[in-house]
Sequence to fold (604 residues):
Amino acid sequence: MRNSFQINGLERIAVVGVGLLGGSIGLALRAAGYTGRRVGIGRRLESLQKALNYDAVDEVTCDVPAGVADAQMVILGTPVGRFESLLSQMAPALRPGTLVTDVASTKVEVARLAARFLPQTVRFVGSHPMAGSEKAGVEYARADLFEDALCLITPSRSTPADTVEQVSGFWQALGGRTVKLSPARHDKLLARISHLPHAVAAALVQISLRNKAIELAGPGFGDATRIASGEPAMWTDIFRTNADNMVQAIDLLIAELRRFRERLAKDDARGIEKWLASSKLTRDQWVALRYEQGHKPKGTST
Amino acid sequence: MRNSFQINGLERIAVVGVGLLGGSIGLALRAAGYTGRRVGIGRRLESLQKALNYDAVDEVTCDVPAGVADAQMVILGTPVGRFESLLSQMAPALRPGTLVTDVASTKVEVARLAARFLPQTVRFVGSHPMAGSEKAGVEYARADLFEDALCLITPSRSTPADTVEQVSGFWQALGGRTVKLSPARHDKLLARISHLPHAVAAALVQISLRNKAIELAGPGFGDATRIASGEPAMWTDIFRTNADNMVQAIDLLIAELRRFRERLAKDDARGIEKWLASSKLTRDQWVALRYEQGHKPKGTST
Fold:
């Protein structure tokens, strides 16, 4: 579903927060043949210098209004807890017609903040590229991070269709596969497939500490808990801005675990195996569908 | 901690069940310079033929007593649900002094079955190499599967020290790092770091089915649920033979999730971040310690 969007129609693209995702956007833009200016905006000169060294951006600044002033597109790549401050700083400086999006993992709160702080003249729609890893920092940025990655685009009812199309085209230009859904639906579903697994990974690590069980842990534990090595501050923002859905998702999981516990206590061999077989089938089908072209999942490492 | 064990002191080593683990033992033996005969025992001629084709064994048979009769060492590599039948079949055929071990993931039940079915003249101690993957079959066997892997050796109080030393030496010859602990302690700790994560992965997949949320899942979900693609029959055996510890582990997890749910409901930002930071620190330290020599975890894949 490529559309008519041309990245080189944008002379300047500003990325606020040049970490793993922001840096990868910069690298992917260059790899996709983008010839315009990539502007990196951040708080710490040291990180910005690193982004320059990695050629993730062409110029950098700590001055948010100055950084976004001449950009045709602005992408927020910081944790969502910084959005209120950033949006209010950039709002007066944005040109009419500027395309604004973000890469945060919760979208209802982002839509609320954008509606509150951005002027009507600006074209905003939220994005959530399902890429990244538990690593943080531009040193882990990759030009191919969005290649074949799902990029969720979350228009509100009032978002103009051409804004959605432009932002979708942007991610497609970087190799992503775009899917549209409402911010509310996004947050509800992501609680189940992303935020809950993260909380569970953290909980499994806590339990592994008892009796120093973790000292015996092997590769399966490593996989199951990998996401628990993600950034605590960023994930605190995600959980807090999706708290209601998270509480529901935790309740679903507790109910599911209780049913399994029941089968164990009754030594219900058939019930246990059926449950495991159904989970295996579902996951194997998902892997086949998701990675059918032989692509490996991105961002997996120790 | 290499000891005086010499694999070439054993003329014949029999592996019962030549799948991922059994096949890897065969390949690792050859890679370690083993010059004796590797005997593959199984139920299906087709699997045994495959094992021969992969050079995981030198000869094969479906006849358990005949296969173990002249072996100096026998390793059970099937799911634990098959052990009762296998041990009772092989018991009369085993030579006095034969070393017997296994690779099952639960050890109390295995120790009980060995004590019940094996003659006193045979030297038995359980093993649990922490290696493998969610894949099944000799086609996924690897000569380096045990390289740097933890191999848990689980003597009972009555196990002679030299039996423990011999079996430890066997795994060390294949590249493993051995740790001794009692079967009861093994099962209690493994419930927390291996069996619980497996059940949770299966539960997360079940939850991801609601509203087709799984269609939006990304690499984090893939990592967190990878082990749910494991063999249902094998895992049913593991859960059933470690049911009491599993019930306790599930209760620990539910309590941990409830505390997190509480923090979310109260919007306790500091509590959430502290909890996440503690899990991240623990896991990062584990990764550093476990893979400090730059080794990647084994067996991770799509």
